[in-house]
Amino acid sequence: HHRFWETQPVGQFNDLGDTSLPEGPIEPPSLLSDVKSEPYNLPAPYEWTTCDMDDEHTCTEVYNLLSLNYVEDDENLFRFNYSKEFLRWALHPPGYFKAWHIGVRVKATKKLVAFITGVPARIRVREDVVRMAEVNFLCVHKKLRSKRLAPVMIKEVTRRVHLENIWQAVYTAGVVLPTPITTCRYWHRSLNPKKLIDVGFSRLGARMTVSRTIRLYKLPESTVTPGFRKMELRDVPAVTRLLRQFLSQFVVAPDFDENDVEHWLLPLENVVDSYLIVSPETQEVTDFCSFYTLPASILNNPNYSVLKAAYSFYNVSTKTPLLQLMNDALIVAKQQDYDVFNALDVMHNEAVLKELKFGPGDGHLHYYLYNYRIRNGLRPSELGLVLL
Ligand code: YNC
Ligand code: MG
Known about the structure:
By secondary structure, this protein is α+β, with helices and mostly antiparallel strands. The chain has two domains: about 5-180, Aminopeptidase; about 185-365 and about 380, Aminopeptidase (3-Layer(aba) Sandwich). The protein is about 20% helix and about 25% strand. It is built from nine helices and 17 strands. It has helices at about 55-70, 85-90, 150-160, 195-200, 210-215, 235-245, 260-265, 320-335, 350-355, and strands at about 45-50, 80, 100-105, 110-125, 130-140, 170-175, 180-190, 230, 250-255, 270-280, 285-295, 295-300, 305, 310, 315, 340-345, 360-370. Strands 1, 3, 4, 5, 6, 7, 8, 9, 10, 11, 14, 15, 16 and 17 form a 14-stranded mixed β-sheet that branches. The longest helix is centred in the N-terminal third of the chain and has 14 residues, at about 55-70. The model has no long low-confidence stretch (mean pLDDT about 95). Tetradec-13-ynoic acid - COA thioester binds next to strand 5, helix 3 and strand 6. Magnesium ion (MG) binds near residues 140, 145, 146 and 150.
């Protein structure tokens, strides 16, 4: 039973398998003049705030809230530790709206205690390119949980999205809500197995020793594909063409233009990294791979405080096999001292994860659309979208 979600225009569990329901928007857009012009009411001790992430003090407040209260693993060993640079990047794509970066403060002390964000995106669902909000970073301070603050925050971000004449959204969560369009699994590739075992991220396999494990995950010192190099500004047009062509095969995928590619994929230190392969013969960009940097705080370990994790982002292989391309990504991640390389089983990833010595994680990542129905549900391999 979902007291809040049952009231929202999302696919409901009861509707699953009902082939009479059409695909597309669940509710038509309202008139903009009918969108509530005042924010939703918060419980009396709290007030809304719009977070200017360019403001160093505000950005630090958001960083502190998330670093202490955002997503943890099931065993509470790790907590996501998005960096300030990462948050600014994630929240400032082309055409972003500052009003969609929403905080809640305690009136009396001005302490920031909750947060939710949206950023605009064009998402293609089959043939239709739909303007959507990507909603992320929903967080309520640990001391204010289970007080039904989250539904108010979701309604408020929805209101502010509607004010921009946008009526759909996409989001991911580790919890099951009505109803996922697909459910993906994270896979993990050890780069620093000794540390991963020490901090409880992985366990020593049966009949394995630490030294055998280190040997198992050893990678070459340098990348193997000729023409493999970091992406530069001048590559934006070629990467955009390559990526658009590649993403066109998936049922749900972003509709990236050159501005989006420059923002989301041009390397930004400790935030996002992209590499490509230029054919030595034709000078064409033939292949592309990328990952973003999302460290995790290691909770209660005497020896280590941070796990440095890379997350596979978008990979396009046309000439170089995906296996070799992602192996080169692993090699550069290892050179840059990442402890682990994570990837979802989206796009074509599943086919290469096992051979690259990724192991399946526990826990799932569910993908959702707001106010857009997809009839049958998708396989992870039909999804061409990675959120942060
Ligand atoms: C969640 N993650 O089911 P029902 S992911 C959505 N996403 O409602 P309360 C969630 N809904 O079931 P708490 C959710 N988690 O009764 C819980 N809910 O209908 C639902 N954790 O509210 C839940 N960040 O305030 C229930 O719960 C209702 O105090 C209960 O707060 C929840 O960013 C939360 O995991 C998650 O900080 C804030 O537990 C809190 O527990 C917390 O009593 C740690 O809420 C951090 C964490 C979530 C990461 C993410 C994506 C969010 C998507 C939100 C939905 C967007 C919809 C589209 C809006 C734009 C539309 C347009 C156009
Ligand atoms: Mg609450």
